[in-house]
UniProtKB/TrEMBL annotation:
Keywords: Membrane, Transmembrane, Transmembrane helix. InterPro entries: DUF4395 (IPR025508). This is DUF4395 family protein. It comes from Corynebacterium xerosis. Residues 15-154 form the DUF4395 domain. The chain crosses the membrane at residues 18-41, 48-68, 101-121, 128-152. The keyword Nuclease does not apply. Pfam families: DUF4395 (PF14340). It comes from the Bacteria.
């Protein structure tokens, strides 16, 4: 079966929550490496700034790819869906809308990090990454998606339509 561009650029719904957590764990490792590179750049370690740029670009591209198409174009997403998550257990399907929203927040954090790195503000980049790692770590290691929680709060406030994700109205009721 041939995939069309439309198929590639369509975000899947529902998504596997286990795969999302696996992707978050991979992103956490990349973010931790980026944090280490930025701290090293602050201390003046030779080459650390270049490594910080490369890692920042990888983070941003990964998030953009996941916002566009979920795991289909993302190396971390594909690894999570096709290799890691099946080793953990059966898929736990959940609504895609809040996960996509969370990936969008990741784009913002990754773009801010890369902008700080390119401006030579490695300390600022490290601070952004520290906050980012808390959010990604909550998803990866505790199963709490902060972006999904924000999505539900925005939905409750009427900013996001109620029918975009009926199950999101009460994220605590999900299993």
């Amino acid at each position: 079966m041939h995939s069309t561009v439309r198929d590639l650029l369509t975000f899947p719904d529902p998504v596997n929550g286990i795969a999302a957590r696996c992707t978050a764990a991979l992103v956490f490792m990349l973010g931790a490496a980026a944090l280490a590179a930025n701290v090293a750049a602050v201390t003046g370690m030779a080459g650390a700034g270049g490594v910080a740029v490369i890692l920042g670009v990888l983070m941003l591209v990964g998030f953009v790819l996941r916002v566009i198409s979920g795991p289909k174009l993302s190396p971390f997403g594909r690894l999570s869906v096709h290799v890691i998550a099946p080793l953990i257990g059966e898929p736990q399907l959940t609504s895609a809308a809040p996960k996509r929203f969370a990936q969008g927040i990741g784009v913002v954090f990754a773009a801010a990090t890369l902008a700080a790195v390119l401006a030579g503000a490695h300390g600022v980049a490290a601070g952004i990454l520290a906050v980012f790692l808390v959010a990604v770590g909550l998803e990866a290691f505790a199963g709490f998606c902060l972006g999904c929680w924000m999505y539900a709060k925005l939905q409750g406030a009427g900013v996001i339509a109620d029918d975009s994700c009926p199950e999101c109205a009460n994220i605590w009721a999900r299993t």
